[in-house]
């Protein structure tokens, strides 16, 4: 290691600095399972009382390129001795790899996390797989950086959002900035989503990144903010009038 820093013409960092640097890099990867665990807590989903199924909607190369079947094992460490956890990656940009295998039809093994993937839009996955009984219905749906950045939501995302709303599925989305969060909240209000919680994600990535389109702006952090919703917003004014 001494030769490495000498050849790089840089002083060797202290041990604490190296550990912090390694943690920043690792936090980008660990942010996803930790955020899923946070979503389970938010919606009071108890993995010790029953097996749970989590669908990751809008999965891209960020989650699936080089993905291994052990990538979500941190969930098992968060909930040791759980009854079984299944994570299904769903999205049109899912990359072929070891996790590209069928979802579970029955409960998985206790204490294990099973990962599978489906290449396609979520509403298609629901119609072609879930409704035919070839996959379990989700206890929780999570989306990492869906990209609701103020532009009109496309029809594929709209179909997915309405499905999640109408089936009353606990859902958690993450955003990279407060601006994206506010834009998403505005859109959810228009869709009459019942927003449960929103704020800064305590399990966001600590690795600073710059957007290619905005290199001069302040760095962003993966999964920096979150918003959760479940079902259709009830209009209290109508209830009071009745």
TrEMBL record:
It holds the Pfam family MSS51_C. Residues 33-209 form the Mitochondrial splicing suppressor 51-like C-terminal domain. Coiled coil: none annotated. Signal peptide: none annotated. InterPro entries: Mito_gene_expr_regulator (IPR052839), Mss51-like_C (IPR046824). It comes from the Eukaryota. PANTHER family: MSS51 MITOCHONDRIAL TRANSLATIONAL ACTIVATOR, PTHR46920. This is Mitochondrial splicing suppressor 51-like C-terminal domain-containing protein. It comes from Cyprinus carpio (Common carp).
